[in-house]
């Protein structure tokens, strides 16, 4: 159980985390979602006692991190996979961490095996690829067999196989009854991984709910439909109260879910060639919800022509 | 004890301490060999001519032991594993200090042995306390200098910054202070490395002139230098506790 209570962090005049309160419960994967610069990493660093909150607290099972006796046995975290000495071997890196929290040495081989780094355990970490570093980071998070796990953007820079591996790992850890807290700026990734979502923007809480709830709220039920009898279907759907836009050889239906569209089509004897709920709109809606809270906007969207033009001057 | 073991593992699983250790010993013992081969009559104190160069290398080793942790972010992993920052950093200072003490011991006696080997008829008998200190005392001064370097490393956090600050101070700033009219010499008498030199070189009288202007006795000089190391470490820990890692 992780609990943030009125957590606030200021750097000079910038408020990185603003009166943030949420809780993360065991047995589930909880996503920590927000655009870049929303304060996700800062919040995680405060949870781990690395940064001091300006006010408020973030507690681990009722205790602040500094009061944990053997913290690695309670909380395993991957904040930044580059926090290793490049000339130290993977095994040596895990060895000093294990020793510091009186974790048995055989556990080092277990976690190396679990993340598939046994073969390169003696190699210097500086030569690792991003994916291997990420695996080492996960190994160090798992080292103390902790009840609580925190991962900051764990799939960043990973290949599809690595992404799938991490996703499955997190589900397995949650199924074992552990608390899994994972941050990401990608809603599509979180929709596949997390069953609960804590959403923040500009350091403020936007929502805490189940992922299904958030997705339902975020997506506007757009469904892409193709059919040889498009005109007939179009009339039927409009009569049923849906809004229809024409796109190339298909229509985008909003205000009605795919089940109802299918049934309407069947009732009118219309053959369907495609009936697909639109994931793209999910990201768009997420941007609408968090839109005001994105800290670093780019002007490129508005004026690509100007940028290009000034580049050729 | 656990934390000392942790810092020992960290120190010896990277390469730079080994290189620094090697360089420190080559510089000190090598210079003693050079003196032994060229000087007309060598004394105990001239056999230790490489003492301050060796100390410079030891301080580089000590500063790097902590600044590389900041450079690569392992200090955060360290504080994650051991949130009591004071304990973690003190353990590091102790382990690095002990290694420096060991280097000093090998450097001191190694230099003396090489000199004795090259000039068996030289005036190298360790027949007074002062001469013993001149050889064996190097270990203690290296150990304390390493603690000071660790403290500076904690505060400065950057390798280049910490190393240049330490070396410039030790090799230049202290002696430049003497140039200040009237009070320069009085300040210089109390500057740490000058005082440490008092402990090593004693009050002269071994057939060598005194090299330190400190008014302290060798024993008090060592205590003074140790006090500076402790104060530096206390300040550094206070800074590290207040800062975000």
TrEMBL record, chain A:
> Do the record's keywords include Transport?
yes
* Entry-linked SMART domains: AAA
Task: Tell me the keywords, alphabetical order.
Answer: ATP-binding, Nucleotide-binding, Transport
Please give the Gene Ontology molecular function terms for this protein: ATP binding; ATP hydrolysis activity
Q: Which Pfam families match?
A: ABC_tran (PF00005)
Chain ranges of the ABC transporter domain:
2-227
Q: Which family does it belong to?
A: Belongs to the ABC transporter superfamily.
The protein in question is named: ABC transporter ATP-binding protein
Name the source organism.
Prauserella cavernicola
Automatic annotation (TrEMBL), chain B:
Indicate yes or no for the key word Membrane.
yes
Membrane spanning stretches:
18-39, 51-72, 93-115, 135-156, 163-181, 221-240
Report which superkingdom the organism of origin falls in.
Answer: Bacteria
Which keywords describe this protein according to UniProt?
Membrane, Transmembrane, Transmembrane helix
Which residues, if any, are the signal sequence?
none
Q: What is this protein called?
A: ABC transporter permease
The taxonomic lineage of its organism, from the top, reads:
Bacteria, Bacillati, Actinomycetota, Actinomycetes, Pseudonocardiales
């Amino acid at each position: 159980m992780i609990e943030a209570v009125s957590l606030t962090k200021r750097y000079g005049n910038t408020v990185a985390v603003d009166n943030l309160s949420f809780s993360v419960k065991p047995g589930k994967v909880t996503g920590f979602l927000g655009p870049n610069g929303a304060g996700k990493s800062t919040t995680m660093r405060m949870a781990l006692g690395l940064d001091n909150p300006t006010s408020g607290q973030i507690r681990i099972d009722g205790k602040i991190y500094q009061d944990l006796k053997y913290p690695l046995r309670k909380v395993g975290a991957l904040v930044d996979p580059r926090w290793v000495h490049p000339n130290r071997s993977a095994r040596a890196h895990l060895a000093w961490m294990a020793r510091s929290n009186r974790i048995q040495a055989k556990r080092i081989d277990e976690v190396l095996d679990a993340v598939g780094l046994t073969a390169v355990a003696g190699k210097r970490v500086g030569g690792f690829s991003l994916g291997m570093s990420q695996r080492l980071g996960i190994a160090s998070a798992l080292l103390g067999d902790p009840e609580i796990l925190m991962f900051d953007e764990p799939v960043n820079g990973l290949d599809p196989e690595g992404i799938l591996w991490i996703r499955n790992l997190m589900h397995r850890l949650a199924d074992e009854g552990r608390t899994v807290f994972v941050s990401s700026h990608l809603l599509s990734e979180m929709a596949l991984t997390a069953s609960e979502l804590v959403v923040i923007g500009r350091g403020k809480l936007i929502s805490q709910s189940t992922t299904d709830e958030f997705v339902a709220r975020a997506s506007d039920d757009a469904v892409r439909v193709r059919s040889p009898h498009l005109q007939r279907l179009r009339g039927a759907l409009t009569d049923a109260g849906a809004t229809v836009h024409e796109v190339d050889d298909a229509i985008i239906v909003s205000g009605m879910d795919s089940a109802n569209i299918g049934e309407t089509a069947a009732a009118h004897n219309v053959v369907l060639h495609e009936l697909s709920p639109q994931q793209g709109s999910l990201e768009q809606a997420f941007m609408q919800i968090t839109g005001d809270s994105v800290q670093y906007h780019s002007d490129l969207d508005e004026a690509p022509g100007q940028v290009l033009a000034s580049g050729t001057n | 004890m656990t934390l000392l073991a942790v810092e020992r593992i960290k120190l010896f699983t990277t390469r730079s301490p080994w290189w620094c250790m090697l360089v420190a010993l080559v510089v000190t013992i090598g210079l003693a060999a050079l003196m032994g081969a060229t000087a007309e009559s060598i004394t105990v104190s001239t056999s230790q001519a490489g003492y301050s160069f060796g100390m410079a290398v030891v301080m580089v080793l000590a500063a790097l032991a902590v600044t590389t942790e900041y450079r690569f972010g392992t200090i955060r992993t360290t504080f994650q594993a051991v949130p009591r920052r004071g304990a973690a950093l003190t353990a590091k200072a102790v382990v690095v200090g002990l290694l420096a003490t060991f280097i000093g011991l090998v450097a001191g006696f190694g230099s003396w042995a090489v000199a004795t080997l090259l000039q068996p008829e030289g005036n190298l008998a360790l027949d007074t306390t002062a001469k013993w200190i001149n050889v064996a005392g190097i270990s203690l001064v290296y150990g304390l200098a390493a603690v000071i370097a660790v403290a500076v490393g904690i505060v400065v956090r950057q390798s280049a910054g910490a190393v240049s600050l330490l070396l410039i101070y030790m090799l230049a700033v202290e002696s430049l202070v003497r140039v200040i009219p009237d009070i320069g010499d009085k300040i210089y008498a109390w500057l740490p490395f000058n005082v440490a030199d008092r402990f090593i070189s004693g009050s002269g009288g071994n057939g060598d002139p005194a090299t330190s202007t400190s008014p302290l006795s060798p024993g008090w000089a060592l205590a003074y230098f140790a006090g500076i190391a402790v104060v530096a470490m206390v300040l550094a820990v206070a800074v590290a506790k207040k800062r975000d890692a």
